[in-house]
Amino acid sequence: MRTPNSLFRLRSETQITMAAGQNIPELGGYDFEFTSVVPDDFECPVCQLTMKDPIQIGGCGHRICNICLESLLRGHSPKCPVDRQPLSRDKIFPDVACHRKILDLKVKCSHVGCPWKGELRAVQKHQSECLFKVVECRNKGCKEKLTKRDMINHTITACVWRKVSCKYCRGSFIVKNEQQHHNVCQKFPVQCTKNCGLSNIPREKLLAHIRDDCPLTEIDCKYRNLGCQSAFPRTRTKTHLESHMESHLNLALCGLETTQNQVKDQSKQIERLTSIFNDQSQQIERLVAKITEQSKQIASLTFTVQGLVQHVERLGDTMKQGFKPKSINDIEEGMKVLFEFWGKKYRGTVRYVGPVPRLGNQLGIEIDPAEEVEFPPFCYSRHSGTYNGKRYFSCAPDRGCWVDFSRVIECYEDDNSNVAPDSLLPM
């Protein structure tokens, strides 16, 4: 058996080191001061502390902390630290009974000054609530560390980094910045800067006080707009008005005369402007009548133009209609034609009209790109604008064709590009 005091230690360096080739594991036992006697077989042979989550090794029956065992198993050729027997994950298991007995042991709280003693199983819950635990002040900027018991008072009443509410504006500020806040707080009470003796004026109302109420503020005479240039403290207003009554009256009479003259001038100007307005109104009426007449003329011309446009469109449609040529002389280069060849109809553009040796008068036609040509491969009529090595016209490769006049079904003329739109060619 070991006495409680002999078990209170941080680490036992002399017994942690394993045999040659073994890793030094992370300590995994309970590092508390026990008030009850701890049996020797509750001590981990690796970390020399009271075992935490004890694991029993099958065969030899020795026990080790779970964390210490995992550290051993990560090493090369792990062995039992007591009898040096090989370790295997297949032959280890948690020792629940031993674990329960260890949790029954009595310990002291590790926080300095705390009188708490209790079962090991309760220590974690206690320490999470322990008032002797040292914590850091939660106020941003404060690095003070005190026990929870002392931290409560520090945080609420002593910490210069705590936030408080301004009793004037209800805004918040850090205690250490109190003076800075008061220097800008709009509701902080200040004295009149004119030294009139009034204090406790909210800063936001100071300018209004000086402008409207302060007896020492210098103001202009209320007859300034009539010509009085005097300025004096607000307290002397009555004295000034009484002593300058006659001069103020003279200024008022002069001002009245000036106003009467201005009214006369403005009346004349109004009459002149009224006459101009009447003349312009008559001009506007005449312009409106003229615009109305011109609008009618424009509407009539628009109707006429629309009729002409429709007539031109009808003429254009007539010009674009196809026709049946009576002879080869009716066909010109550049015309669009619909012709029949090898049992099928094709569309194309006339590129050549004239004689071809051994073929007679022929039409050299470039077949439209959209047409799928199905001439027999041996057909001499399909070419690229040549016959017997001589070029008669230019066209896309293998899109040329010699066609007799008798195979032409219809011709089409285009007054712009000599190419009839596909939509006008019959299928």
From TrEMBL:
Keyword DNA damage: no
Keywords: Metal-binding, Zinc, Zinc-finger
Stretches assigned to the RING-type domain: 44-84
Pfam family, one: zf-C3HC4_2
Domain TRAF-type: 126-170, 181-234
Zinc fingers typed TRAF-type, residue spans: 126-170, 181-234
SMART domains xref list: CAP_GLY, RING
An MF annotation (GO) of this entry: zinc ion binding
Domain CAP-Gly per the UniProt entry, residue ranges: 360-404
Signal sequence bounds: none
GO BP: regulation of canonical NF-kappaB signal transduction
Name the record gives this protein: Uncharacterized protein
Organism the protein comes from: Pocillopora meandrina
